[in-house]
Amino acid sequence: MNLSSTDEDYIKLLGNVTEITKYLIKGGCEGKKLETYMKFYLVSMFPYFTDEQVDAEVFELKKLAYELAWDGQKSLTDDLSSWVMETSGSFTNEDYYKSANILQPKDKKKVRVILGRLVEKGIIERVGNKNAVFRLIESNADEIDFINASVKEFMIKWPFKIEYLVKTHPKNIIIIAGEQNAGKTAFCLNVAKLNMNQGPNIYYFSSEMGAAELKDRLSCFEDMTLEDWKAVKFLERSNKFSDIIKPNAINIIDYLEITDNFYLIGSELKAIHERLENGIAIIGLQKDGKSVLGRGSSFGLEKPRLYITLQDNAPAGAIITLKKAKNWKDKSRNPNGLEAYFKIRNGCELYQTSEWEYPTK
Predict the structure, then answer these.
(1) Which of 199, 212, 170, 204 is nearest to 188 (CA)?
(2) Which of 56-70, 156-170, 229-243 has the lowest mean pLDDT?
């Protein structure tokens, strides 16, 4: 048998060997070492091959693999361009290196050159002032059917009666950016409590709490039994929330874990927003004490229609602030910037200790 064989299974297996060999070449494997690996794969797939057949196939497949690897600039350009077109949100050089298994400095240099040309052509652009962070320029836009659009609000109850200040609409993203111990999880659990059995299903995605800790937290609600909480679907999840978001439900994400490359938060929110239909997503973000906004800063401010911060104010409790509120309930009262003081009892029960007011300078 050789490369001219018409047996489909045989051709497929040889294709697998070629693909593996291509990535070995891109990873810097050459010479006798490369041939040893190729012979190993061939013998494992075709144990009936003679030594002469193995040598013949290695010769042919290695030649084909070199043609497919980054021997030529054009093949790399085509692959990188295709990868960019399929990528959503921001990406870096390193993202592509990992995807394409590019390890050699000369090939990494070629990638940087190609990305620079894509910037010049207006296909991608640099994010902020970061040279190694890019995003695809999306030139397509769907026409907005405002004539047939429903203006019905998404009926939801909020802690501290925020629904009397801000309207929520289907497909909205709401951010809860809180410092440690400022009540982020307590706030999210109270949203679930206030809205269970009221209409849309509630899915609570927890990135930190296991079953035992969750049970302990839920047991703190004195007016609720553990059986009552079965109305909420609790799921353990820490990343790629857009893959499992429920388009027509109340999705509560406690919380979005991104420990570095905070610019990626904007991409995560965009991906979640695109999955929503008539539902909403309430997303917790970690907030550093000295920061005005949660992690991601302005990158996380674009998609949300409501952006809430929770700030520790011990020993007096904590402060809740409406940092961004796009849909005013009362057109004569701008809710942006309103804040109120609150305390947490038993680690779960929230009670307000001041009226909603604009902070004094």
Answers:
(1) 204
(2) 56-70
- Look up residue 226 and give its amino acid: L
- Quote the pTM value: 0.63
> What is the domain partition of the chain in residue ranges?
8-68, 73-136, 159-352
CB burial of residue 14 (10 Å; 0-12, 13-18, 19+) = buried
Q: Which CATH architecture has domain 73-136?
A: Orthogonal Bundle (1.10)
Name the superfamily (CATH) of residues 159-352: P-loop containing nucleotide triphosphate hydrolases (3.40.50.300)
pLDDT, tens digit (0-9, with 9 covering 90-100), for 234-258: 999 888 888 899 999 999 998 787 6
User: Given this model, what pLDDT does residue 361 score?
Assistant: 61
- Give the 3-state DSSP-derived string for the chain, with helices as H, strands as E and coil as C: CCCCCCCHHHHHHHHHHHHHHHHHHHCCCCHHHHHHHHHHHHHHHCCCCCHHHHHHHHHHHHHHHHHHCCCCHHHHHHHHHHHHHHCCCEEEHHHHHHHHCCCCHHHHHHHHHHHHHHHHCCCEEECCCCCCEEEECCCCCCCCCCCCCCCCCCCCCCHHHHHHCECCCCCCEEEEEECCCCCHHHHHHHHHHHHCCCCCCEEEEECCCCHHHHHHHHCCCCCCCCCHHHHEEEEECCCCHHHCCCCCCEEEEECCCCCCCCCHHHHHHHHHHHHCCCCEEEEEEECCCCCCCCCCHHHHCCCCCEEEEEEECCCCCEEEEEEEECCECCCCCCCCCCEEEEEEECCCEEEECCCCECCCC
The predicted pLDDT at position 260 comes to: 57
Q: Would you say residue 102 has pLDDT above 80?
A: yes
160-180 residue pLDDT tens = 999 999 999 999 999 999 888
Beta bridge partners of 283: 175, 253
Domains 73-136 and 159-352 share a fold: no
